[in-house]
Amino acid sequence: MSSYPFEEFTRVVLVPSIANLAAPTLDEIDAGIDITCDLTKDGLAVGRTTEGIERARWPSLLIGEDPGRYSFDQPTLKGKRRTQDDVEPFYDACIYRGSSFLVVRRGLPYEHYFDGGQVVEAVSFRFGHRTTAPSAANTTVTFTVRLFVNADNDAAVLTGHSLLTEDGLPLLTEDGHLLLVEP
Q: Could you tell me if 158 and 25 are in contact, meaning their C-beta atoms sit under 8 angstroms apart?
């Protein structure tokens, strides 16, 4: 059983600001909060749905459709609460009506940090109210927060280059931030 959500092949970050949704920078990602390990196994629910546009032609019996507008189908994040003595950056970041960005990278091992050229999903949204799940015996306390999406890019390309070790791990500065180089 994996110790991280999504079998260790997804990394999820809440980012305070992104200037260009099609090309987030490593500096912007580095300013965010990695919430991957704070999510429950089913905690990332940001699925899109596409409406159909009817294409009926007279006298055809077939009512065909073309793809139309798309939307997000009740997007939510579901996280684990910690004890009262612990710091909870994910829970604390979910401020009602607060704006944020969600960056999701899929398909690479969780241990590999972000690097320039990687394709990510970038979503701009506002938080709804946090809702704590009802208590149950011998279970972790969880909370759910609805996301109100106002823009997205499911094929954004990260810009900038970090210095990575041979294992794909980032080289960090003394204060824990990414060591970046200009391309």
A: yes
Distance between CA 13 and CA 147 in Å, rounded? 14
Tell me the two tokens of residue 101: 């960005």
Q: How many CB atoms lie within 10 A of CB 113?
A: 22
117, 23 contact by CB (below 8 A) = no
- Do residues 22 and 110 make contact, with C-beta atoms less than 8 angstroms apart? no
- What DSSP letter does each residue of 18-48 carry, written as one string? -S-TTS-BHHHHHTSEE-GGGEEEEEEE--E
**Distance between CA 25 and CA 116 in Å, rounded?**
8
CATH topology of domain 5-181: Pnp Oxidase; Chain A (2.30.110)
Burial string for 151-166 (b: 16+ CB within 10 Å, else e) reads ebbeebebbbebebee
Strand partners, 123: 102, 152
pTM: predicted TM-score of the whole model, two decimal places: 0.79
pLDDT digits (tens, 9 = 90+) for 79-120: 998 777 778 899 999 999 999 999 999 999 888 888 889 999
Q: Which two tokens stand for residue 88?
A: 């909870």
Number of helices and strands in the chain (H, E): 2, 11
Parse the chain into domains and list their residue ranges. Answer: 5-181
Q: Which two tokens stand for residue 111?
A: 């241990």
